[in-house]
Amino acid sequence: MKKTVAIVAMLAIAFGAAFGQKLADKQVLIIGADANPAGIDPHKSTAYSSVRITNRVYETLVDMDESGRLVGKLAESWTNPDDTTYVFTVRKGVYFHNGRLMTAQDVKNTFDRILDPANGCTARSNFSLVESVTALDDYHVQFKLKQALAPFISNFTSIYTAIIPKEVLDANSGSLANVACGTGPFKLAEWIPDNQVRLVKHDQYWMAGYPKLDGITYKIIPDEAARLAALRTGSIHYTTLSAQNVELVARNKNIVVKSYQTRDYYFLGFNFTQKPFDDVRVRQAFSLAVDRQDIIKKALKGEGIVAGAVSPTLEQWAIDVSKNPWYKKNVAKAKALLAEAGYPSGLDVEMTVPSSYPDVVAVSQVLQQQLAAAGIRVTIKQMEIGQYVAAWKSKGHQVMAGKNGAGIDPDRSLYFFFHTKGSANVWGYSNPEFDSLVEQAKVTIDQSKRAALYAKAQEILYADAANVFFASPKTYCFISSKVKGFEPIVSNPEDFKFATILK
Amino acid sequence: MRTYIVRRVLLFIPVLFGISLAVFALLHMIPGDAVDLMMGVEANPELRAQLLRQYGMDYPWYVQYWNWISGVLRGDFGVSMRTGLPVLPEILSRFKVTLMLTLYSAVVSWLIAIPLGILAAIKRNTWIDGASRFLALLGVSIPNFALGTMVLLVLSLVFCYYPPLDYTPFLASPLGNLESLIWPSLVLGAIMAGSVMRMTRSALLENLQQDYVRTVRAKGAPERVVVLRHALKNSLLPIVTIVGMQIGSLLGGTVVTEQIFSLPGLGLYTLTGITQRDYPVVQGSILFFAFIFVVINLIVDILYSRIDPRISYR
Asked: Taking the model in full, what pTM does it have?
């Protein structure tokens, strides 16, 4: 009997999905955005408010799929005949929003813009080893490198390398800050600052039959409570909110919460130019005094995973930190290390925290309690974001709590943040052994050899406690239950190509 | 009178010049600069140098100030470093929103405050007076973000209603404009009403004890005439002062309400500018606020002499 009921119920659901649910007349998705985009130049605007728009309007040569594999997007495929040459086969039948067909020459023109130092494009430093870019014919473009570079292809997944049409750039005297013309599924129709950004369907999109939606409208609603209210009343279909709101909508049938594991991590960064943080024992004491599961439980509402510098979602690169000795809480050993370093009665430190990130503030408060048990007395100093950035640039802090993006390649997670010459190494961390490992890995094309080098480098990084790494949070998407065909993934969380809206 | 106005307008010049210098200096003294914030972790010296050059930030501060202020004098407030949009048209279009919000709020506050204030004064020491004073105290002490959020929550949870997401300009549709602004205006108006009501009550009470009121009553005028025609008219001076001050600060101080109700006003523009250290945006808006403030002060002073002919300016 029970079984029959179950089968009938399942059939009903299946038929309901196939016949019962009609599409709404108006296929325009309304998104509640927390901020006005800070410019919409795909190569220069780095704020999330901008990137969520440029990622709909523009596309890149290479994409990363759900499992972290690199796949073609505007490039159908690529080959590397030798370690320093890459040839991309450009997809045929791709139209820009102005109706022109994209060719290999557009790839070359795009990289002419990105690589010219006078333009100040964000991705330039990732391509400093490029010697030349040549369009071989209409659909083949060749990149010549000065030396082998293992993470080279992964750099092409960043929206900072989106392919643009040169004529639009020239018509706007070299600025794309408030005009847009890409190859993406949606094109820019209107941008009213601090009110809305309206995108409409690109009819000539290369993926036949997509996008399903007629458009996406971003309404700028800065206040979190207001966004939740707007979602409840059906004024918007989609928004992102912090973890605290998940409970508030748990019993609301009209709202679905979907989450995905980000590649961000919370960290505690030391200022190596200040005593006693140049002493490895002091830093290790911090690492051992911390209970990372407890941070996840208290500050992240139990969601999130213990993480190191390399995102655990990149399984081929990240080592299992749960087995790392420096990740196991051991207050007695922490105290002993502090005593050995000359602080038997503990230590007073000032922790700089960015006030506009409530999640980082929450993590720092849990840290404060945990560290107190090991005799590390923390004063939390909240700073406005501008002040915070200035503090880490001028090394005006003792320790700072923060959140960083680990990126999709360990070269970014490790070299960029921790090599002596890494451009984001604001700590002053320097270990020749680590440096040599990540330098070797950078030019090692063989994946398994490269992974072995990075594994060693990670062990060193955690033993040195260059930073103390804690956990990687999730991002929560709050969606109207009328929206179907949408699943957020970390490499492209707001891809609404396949989405539709039900009545 | 005319010479007085001319003199006051001429005084604007040193005041605004001083403010422009102060804003420029403060903005460049606070830690964190626009380029650092723009680059974030992607920072490198080469990119930084390039961006500094692009925004003219590689010159000494006095050259930067000169470049900015000479543009302002020609009516060119520069372009936003973040959005690349020119600052002055943005300020003016957002000012319209803030101005309408302020006007609606002022009307709401008068509709609440003046009748309540009068009622409280003539029914002094009755329960009506007590209730009005309690409401006024509530208005003065409740923060506008709390009241704003509460209004939104009640609207959405109880009435399943959310104010329109599109801002409708007054000229496009006065009714639509009212719908866009009614809820934030009620919030701000209710809060403003507190102090206006208290001022009305105390000014009126003071006047009602004056000799001339006794004279008016003695000649047999009805109570309505006594209060509205005579006493209230003479109480207007402090009320106008406080309303003028409130409008002045509202024009620059509706930030929180604009944020909660997602209104594309000047406050939100300035606040975003400050967090991103978008120098042309912040400098331009603060200068604009200062200008509005001195103009309103002037208007209030002129109104004084209209209300009370004994006040004359030479």
From this structure: 0.84
Tens-digit pLDDT profile for residues A153-177: 999 999 999 999 999 999 998 889 8
Contacts of B182 (CB under 8 A, 6+ apart): B104, B163
Residue of A nearest to B83 (CA): A39
Which letter does DSSP use for residue A489 in this model? B
Nearest to A390 among B31, B82, B157 (CB): B31
Q: What is the ipTM of this complex?
A: 0.81
Q: Which residue has the tokens 């369009």?
A: A135
Q: Which of A37, A223, A388 sits opposite B259 (nearest CB)?
A: A223
Does the N-terminal peptide bond of residue A276 adopt cis geometry, omega within 30 degrees of 0? yes
Q: Is A125 on the interface with B (CB under 8 A)?
A: yes
Say which CATH topology domain B101-263+282-307 has: MetI-like fold (1.10.3720)
Domains in chain B: boundaries: 2-73, 101-263+282-307
CA distance A417 to A412: 7
Whole-angstrom CA distances from A220 to A99, B147, B185 are 29, 21, 20
Q: Band of the pLDDT at A18, cuts 50, 70, 90?
A: very low
CA distance A129 to A119: 18
B30–A386 CB contact, under 8 Å? yes
Do strands A471-472 and A305-306 pair parallel, antiparallel, or not at all (unpaired)?
Answer: antiparallel
Instruction: Give the sign of the dihedral formed by CA A33, CA A39, CA A45, CA A46.
Output: negative
Which segments in chain B show pLDDT lower than 70?
252-253, 313-314
Q: In this predicted model, what pLDDT tens digit does every residue of A422-457 receive, in sequence order?
A: 878 888 899 999 999 999 999 998 889 999 999 999
Interchain proximity B31–A35, CB inside 8 Å: no
